[in-house]
Amino acid sequence: MISVNNVTLAYGKRVLFDEVNINFTKGNCYGVIGANGAGKSTFLKIVSGEIEANKGTIDITPGERMAVLNQNQFAFDESTVLNTVMMGHKRMWKVMHERDAIYAKEDFSEADGIKAGELENEFGEMGGYTAESDAATLLSELGVEDGLHQQLMKDISANLKVRVLLAQALFGNPDILLLDEPTNNLDVETISWLEDFLAGYENIVLVVSHDRHFLDAVCTHVADVDRSKIKVYTGNYSFWYESSQLAARQMSDKNKKMEEKRKDLLDFIARFSANASKSKQATSRKKALEKLVIEDIQPSNRKYPGIIFKQDREVGNEILKVENLSKVIDGKTIFSKLNFDLQKNQKIAFLSRDPMALTTFFEVINGKQPSDTGSYEWGTTITSAYLPNDNSEFFVGNNDNLMDWLRQYVPPTVKDVDEDFLRGFLGKMLFSGDEIMKKTGVLSGGEKVRCMLSKMMLQNPNVLMLDEPTNHLDLESIIAFNDSMISFPGIVLFTTHDHQFMQSVANRIIEITPNGMIDKLMTYDEYLQDDRVKEQRIALYQ
After folding, report:
1. Bridging pattern class, strands 347-351 and 373-378
2. Which of 116, 218, 458, 540 could pair with 513 in a Cys bridge, judged by C-beta atoms 3.0 to 4.6 Å apart?
3. Is 492 helix (H, G, I), strand (E, B) or coil?
4. Is the dihedral of CA 57, 60, 63, 66 positive or negative?
5. What average pLDDT score do residues 357-368 get?
6. Strands 204-208 and 176-180, sheet pairing
């Protein structure tokens, strides 16, 4: 068990945590959620001991081992991939080297023999004799091929390093597992494997993630970081979100009788409890929800941005035609043989195992770089807005305040652009009061994305192109963005690692590979489950 007692942390006048008291118990997975800057990652560092709180204590049941997902990809550069994983069990790694050092002695004494025997016993109890094969199996399941296991960490790609560090954290069945954004840079197959792994995990897990589908798949509880406090709620993220929204609506409904409100809440709990039986963590989640009392359901204090796109005109019959598009960079084929037409009412999710292929494709159809072969043609009725993965060009060398920054992107057709007009667009993105005078040079990643969305909303486009739109956003902004794309009447072309965003928005899937493309009129989940698609993917990635 982890017991958090009166933990307080402040940086100057900024109080991150104030007298936080919570317990985390075995068998539960806690999704740590909160707005950007609320202190989610900092809290995990306090629990792990990396950061010391100003006040309070973290007490862990004696003898329990903690593992933390390492964020430093260069920390193990001189170690082999396999050894890096085994280093995750620090005590076992230390015992192994102490034992080997004794055996290497030339003047091996009786005392050395006794000590070596003690170490051998401890090593065996920790699973040391199967450690190499266990680590190799874990790496293979995470997509790190056998041929890479003896390579040095410095010689493998960044994407593979992420998987090795994840294997390191999972290795040896730790009693407490702390994971900060574990799905970053993982493909859908590996994320699915991790969901299954954590759903069957019987110890304590604390996980920070912006992936709602992932949180729903693995979490039995939500730890909400808000207003310098942390409160634990039963259920996964969707349960927390929908229950808090229901509670907020009930608070505002003064005419509804208390008995009716109570019945609505009980019906809500029963419905989610029934759905929980179909989840990966069926048993523990269902039991947790059945024990829940309605007094535990509280409205959220979160603020959600107003992401509202309006189109000046509907798209015509000719939207976008792509013919035989290909691109090679530094001798590597990024994509080839891309051929498709866009139709009305389509929202297309683009997939690829190579993130560069997706970004390059969007850059090509936005005229940012040329293709090597083929062509693309936009229809005459199209007005588009593009959210690039890297938005730095819009802010580098620019230190305007937000008002002046946004003013430069007002379309020439818009008249009477005054302060109230600009405040309206910035206010929808939660920039209020004096915040609109903030300089662009001090903006966080999430604030820059919200500025870009204000800019795009000004354009009233009928086609939206989004390259990883949820990057840097908190869950509240992601939900608002997701809902906006569902209701947007125009065309949406996008790529994202957010499973729920993709599943709920896309009605057509195009996967880009070096050897061609797959194009299906179906949802994302249907695409993942289609056997014929699986065969096509294998053939195209060979």
Report:
1. unpaired
2. 540
3. strand
4. negative
5. 96
6. parallel
- Whether 351 is covered by a domain: the verdict is yes
Question: Contact, 478 vs 212, CB < 8 A?
Answer: yes
Mean pLDDT of 282-300: 63
Say how many CA atoms lie within 13 Å of 226 toward its Cβ: 16
- Closest to 495 (Cα-Cα) out of 386, 411, 419, 335: 386
**What digits encode the pLDDT tens for the residues 293-332?**
655 667 777 888 999 999 999 999 999 999 999 999 999 9
For 111, phi then psi, to 5°, come to -65, -40
519 and 432 belong to one structural domain: yes
414 belongs to a structural domain: yes
Which of 125, 149, 175 is the endpoint of a domain?
175
How far is 177 from 68, CA to CA, in rounded Å? 6
How far apart, in whole angstroms, are the C-alpha atoms of residue 435 and residue 304? 17
Q: How many domains, the chain?
A: 3
Residue 229 forms beta bridges with which residues? 226
User: Radius of gyration over alpha carbons of the chain, in Å?
Assistant: 26
Q: Which residue has the tokens 């807005």?
A: 385
* CB burial string 330-346: b at 16+ within 10 A, e below: eeeebbbbbebebeeeb
What confidence score (pLDDT) does residue 334 get? 93
Distances from the Cα of 105 to the Cα of 100, 111, 118, 194, 387, angstroms: 9, 12, 17, 43, 63
Q: Determine the Cα–Cα distance for residues 60 and 82; give it in Å rounded to an integer.
A: 29
Same domain, 254 and 394: no
Q: Give, as one character, the DSSP assignment of residue 373.
A: E
* Mean pLDDT across 145-165: 94
Instruction: Tell how strand 221-226 and strand 176-180 pair up.
Output: unpaired
pLDDT at 82 > cutoff 60: yes
* Range 50-67 average pLDDT: 95
Instruction: Give rounded-to-5 percent helix, strand, coil for the chain.
Output: 45, 20, 35
Helix (H) or strand (E) holding 513: strand 508-513
pLDDT in tens, 193-215: 999 999 889 999 999 999 999 99
CA 329 to chain centroid, in Å, comes to 28
Task: Give the model's pLDDT for residue 364.
Answer: 97
**Banded pLDDT at 270 (limits 50, 70, 90):** confident
pLDDT band at 110 (very low <50, low <70, confident <90, very high): confident
CB distance 195 to 528 below 8 Å: no
CB neighbourhood size of 87 (10 A): 18
Which residue segment(s) compose the domain that 500 sits in?
Answer: 320-541
Read off the tokens for 87. Answer: 């280093």
